[in-house]
Design a protein that fits this description.
- This protein is of the alpha+beta class.
- It has one domain (about 5-215): L-fuculose-1-phosphate Aldolase (3-Layer(aba) Sandwich).
- It is built from 7 helices and 10 strands.
- It has an 8-stranded mixed beta sheet with strand order 4-3-2-1-5-10-9-8, with helices on both faces. A two-stranded antiparallel ribbon has the order 6-7.
- Helix 2 runs parallel beside helix 5 (about 140-150), helix 3 crosses helix 6 and helix 6 runs antiparallel to helix 7.
- The longest helix is centred in the last third of the chain and has 29 residues, at about 170-200.
- It is elongated, with a radius of gyration of 18 Å.
- The termini are far apart.
- Bound molecules: zinc ion.
- The site of zinc ion (ZN) has 5 residues, from loops.
């Protein structure tokens, strides 16, 4: 099997993302750069807990043609392949792009406000996490909207009403960005609740348990 090391790396990453609750079932996907021309991408509609290296798709980045099919046609590339490809084409410094529906950052994507990033997190997330306007998942429309927002140093993006995308030079750093974005989202949601209770104290009894639950979630 060609590209065995990169295929295994994708499987390991998906397991880690699933174990930590960032991927759920077949939800979420990622792209790993192999070299200037080739990328490895998660397959569509595959349970990550049982995914094998041969299920991972290897494509040419320029036109997304399948160039190494180890599954004998059983696996198709993720529907969000085009989304990741726009990032990797625009950003030669990016080696890994991860898209998730992770719960807290996805809640921020529903709220639809950009997240300012505190200095301690900027190495992973950039200065600000922008919101990409809504477009249906898996469409070139969504990929085009993201492409317009991609900038050097921007490592995390909220996809309106959908989820998030994080990217970095390597898979460990992209994974760290996913975790730190979830921690930032947790803090922002807790702060929103605090502000809401301050303006409407009669809501305290109902909202305080939600805030306490958020603040007790383990984060980086
Ligand atoms: Zn999605």
């Amino acid at each position: 099997m060609k590209h065995a090391a990169e295929r295994r790396q994708v499987v390991t990453l998906c397991l880690r993302l699933s174990e930590r609750g960032y991927f759920a079932g077949t939800g979420g996907n990622l792209m790993l750069r192999i070299d200037d021309e080739r990328v490895a991408v998660t397959p569509s509609a595959t349970d990550y807990l049982v995914m094998r290296p041969e299920d991972v798709c290897v494509l040419r980045l320029s036109d997304l043609a399948v160039i190494d099919d180890a599954s004998d046609g059983a696996r198709r590339p993720s529907v969000e392949t085009g989304l990741h490809a726009r990032v990797l084409r625009a950003r030669p410094d990016v080696g890994c792009s991860i898209h998730t529906h992770q719960p807290l950052a996805s809640a921020c994507a529903l709220i639809g406000e950009p997240l300012a990033v505190p200095p301690a997190l900027r190495a992973w997330l950039g200065d600000e996490v922008p919101v990409i306007g809504y477009a249906p998942s898996g469409t070139s429309w969504l990929a085009g909207k993201l492409a317009k927002a991609v900038r050097p140093g921007r490592q995390a993006y909220l996809l309106r009403n959908h989820g998030i995308l994080c990217c970095a030079a390597d898979s460990d750093t992209a994974m760290a960005a996913v975790e730190r974005l979830e921690g930032l989202a947790r803090d922002r949601l807790a702060a929103r609740i605090e502000e809401r209770v301050r303006r409407a104290p009669d809501l305290r009894d109902r909202l305080a348990p939600v805030r306490d639950l958020l603040l007790h979630l383990k984060g980086p």
